[in-house]
Structures are given as C-alpha cells and as structure tokens.
Amino acid sequence: MKMYPFTRFAPSPTGYLHRGHALSALWVWAAAEKYGYQVHLRIEDHDQSRARPEYIAAIREDLHWLGFQWVHESIQSERNSLYATALENLKTKGLVYACDCSRKYLFESNSINEAGEVIYLGNCRHKELPFSMESTIRFKTPHTTISWNDLRLGPLSEVPLEQCGDFSLRDSTGQWTYQFAVCVDDIDENIGLVVRGEDLRFSTARQILLMKELGRETPPLYLHHPLILGDSGLKLSKRQRAASLRAERDLEITPEQIFGEICFQTKLTEDSRPISLQNALSLVSKQLDSSF
After folding, report:
1. Among positive and negative, which fits the CA dihedral 194, 230, 113, 130?
2. pTM of whole model > 0.85?
C-alpha cells in the first residue's frame, strides 16, 4: 500500500464549475487510475470573502453529473485549528515573521513575477514586529534551488526566494493563504500525487520547500496539465466569465459533448465529436504514456 495513497481534486467555491474544471477533473481521475491513487475532493474555500455555500453544493452536483466519484472529502474552512497548529510550529522554529507592509507598498516597492505575484524583498524580515491578527505572516524563504520531475513536463528547477521572495502564510485579514493551506492539507490528507493546471506550476517549488519545514521530507509527485484558453487568449476562468457547467446543462448540452470538445481543444482528438467519460479518460491516459 502507498504511504501517500491519495490525489485530490481541489476547486474553490468562488463560482460555478466550468469547462476548465472539467478538463482538470479528467486529468486528475485519469492519473489516479493510471498511477494507482484514490481521489480526495477538497473544497478550497480559504478565500472566505468570495466563497459561497451554494457553490460548494454545486461542485458536488456538477461532478456527479459529469460522472466523477471520490472516496473522501474535506472543506478548508473547517480545518482552521489544523492550520493554526502548523503555523505555531513554524513560529517555534523561527521560520516566520510578522509583516505590516501595505498592499500599495507591495506593488510599488517590489518586483512582479511572470505569474503576476509580488516578489517580496523582505522589508519586514528583521524588524521583529509583534504577531497580531492584523499582521501578514511571512515565511523566511531560504536561498535554495528546488528540483523535481514533473510527470508531464519533465525535470524542473526553481529558486523560490528569487521567484516570490518571502511568501505569505496568513494575510492581514486573518485568512490562510492558498500556498500555506494546501501544504498543510497535502500532508494531513496523505496526498501522494498533485495534478493541476500549468498555471499553478510556479507554486510547486515553494510548496515542496514549505512541506519539508512542516515535517514531510518526501513531497508528492506533481503533474501539470495543459489549459483551455478563452477567446482572449487567457486561461478559461470564472474571472474571464467562462460559461458554467450548469448553464450548459440548462441548454441540454451533455457531458459527452463537453468531453468531446475539451479533448479537441487540448489536442487529444482530431475533432470535437461527443465522447464518453471513459473514452476521455483513456485519451488522457495515453497522453501520460508519452510524458516523462
């Protein structure tokens, strides 16, 4: 039995699922079957300013409509004590510090990386500010190179300090950040394989680094899949007003039509004719055979 037997599908309930999520689900479930993992559904509602209960219910409903099943489920907002304990452990090890830099300062006084994130240059690292709920809590990122082998993209290396600087674990409103919550969750939920879109590839090195400091020496395997691009050339997303799966269902569009079209859009097929979920999973699995 695997030491870390799960992979996870981890949508944010800040809107309804769309075709980009359907594509990601195909890759998650195909990789799970191919490599022998079980799927855990994680609701990543760390952004409480945008998360809505009706979106959580819709995620389950839409996934079932597409034909996907999972074995376990968790909701990040129910796991605050776990994150607080993990943060205290990092505090004890002297690996975090309080930051009072304003949002305006961050964008005016620091560089921006290719993903649009601030590269925080450590303005508050040596100030020894007191921790409070109004403080941003940052990780003291060491200057080290992190290397891993992506199951689709091959060998990759990044230097998190140069890529993002001292990244935040909790923001000034008291909310846990994506980078921190997913690391704690991946450890606690025994995630051995992380499958996600190429847009999140640049989170990998810092998450491997942070998980090690949180006590997990062996990181998950990583696989970053291609994305569906909208008419604007940007990733299909809620912010780009992508049509929701439930809106398509109301138009009597079938899951088979959706799978056929997204497989065509990502060059898994030569035409967009409808295909079954099982056939779509087989196509992704064949793509994995030609990966690293």
Report:
1. negative
2. yes
